[in-house]
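Entry 14. Structure prediction run on the chain below.
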Amino acid sequence: MTDVDDLVPDSTVRNIEQAIARSAFAELTAFISPLPTGQIVAILERLDSNERAVAYRMLPKGRALEVFEVLDPSLQSDLVLALQDEQTAELFADLDPDDRVELLDELPANLARRLLQGLPADERDMTAEILGYPQGSIGRRMSPEFVRVDPEWTTATALTKLSDHLDDAETVYTLPVTADDRTLIGVVSLRELLKAAPGTTVGQVMQPAQWVHATDDAETAARRCADLKMLALPIVDHETRIVGILTVDDALSILEDADSEDQARISGVEPLRRPYLTAPVLGLMRSRVVWLLVLAVGATLTVQVLEVFEETLAEVVTLALFIPLLIGTGGNTGNQAATTVTRALALGDVRPQDLGKVLFREFRVGLSLGVVLGGLAFTIVSLIYGVDIGTVIGLTFLALCTMAATVGGVMPLIARAIRADPAVFANPFISTFVDASGLLVYFFIAKAVLGI
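Output returned:
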């Protein structure tokens, strides 16, 4: 995914598209080759699949690999399917093992198998090791390419060891310190190695290690890396032997993907997992239609409630005027609470065990909102429609805001407790629930106050 600073003018994209259409390959090379990697990625994300493959083939070999590594795995998959076997195998072999696994998850099984078989034995073993961890675990996103040092080594020896692996190590700024059996003992930074006095051992300057298990959830591990502000977080097995590292750039990428997924589901769509302009129209439709069908079925509850209270509405037609206002306010109140708690869950501020605390807090928030909005509604509606109608609307606001905030606050916690995605329980389902239950509350209050 590209940053705003990497975007290029539409005129540049049009020039490239026209050069491709005319098969003016020399002109296309002159347009695209001098651009920075980020801008090339931004251009490729705006082209269709055939144009993207043509433009990519015009890049020099070194630039092509740089660009390929930055592309989303879905676009990497598109290019692999469009390129010749020899070029595909070369690109695949040059990827880091963790990036290679992400690409394999996007490819057809037969092609993935063929590419794996074409790797050198050591690269194939590292890739297979990562593939052995469960989907969604940090083991699938870690890098097995790291430099570990011994606590008995001098800092000079450690620096010599490090210099021998500058080309193949994922990072050199944070180094795990291990025993002979790879058991993690601590970590040491490059800064500490460089400033240590001659003869100092690694064990004298190392720090206690923070780590996560390879089978832990990827988002949880990435959040831990970000919270600890670590450049690299060691990944260990259940015997505390190091198996890989998670670098901060990979952690931020995981968190960005998770945030995009949550925002999509909160809005009632499935995440695209690829840049918008590269997503096929059918894919966009599929990402939305399921949720629309679910919400349409849920909305039938609202219709049934209206049907039950049809006679009440016939007696006091004025009540119908306030239905959109009431269910809209209730839905928004529930959505605000659900979104706030979902975000707090993602940040680790609350846990499912905090259900009681969250329920009590959101009950008080909803009650406070109900008092403010209900009091305002009572005053305005009473002046226009009379005190009786004003009382109904005011009391409904009070009850609806309290109920919506309470339910909206606890639903994400319940979702996490049953191992469901909290974002799924947010806006779409909260709105449907509050619409139906809010109408029930409204009509029961109306019947009690108006005596109908």
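The two ends are 59 Å apart (CA to CA).
Filed with the rest of this week's runs.
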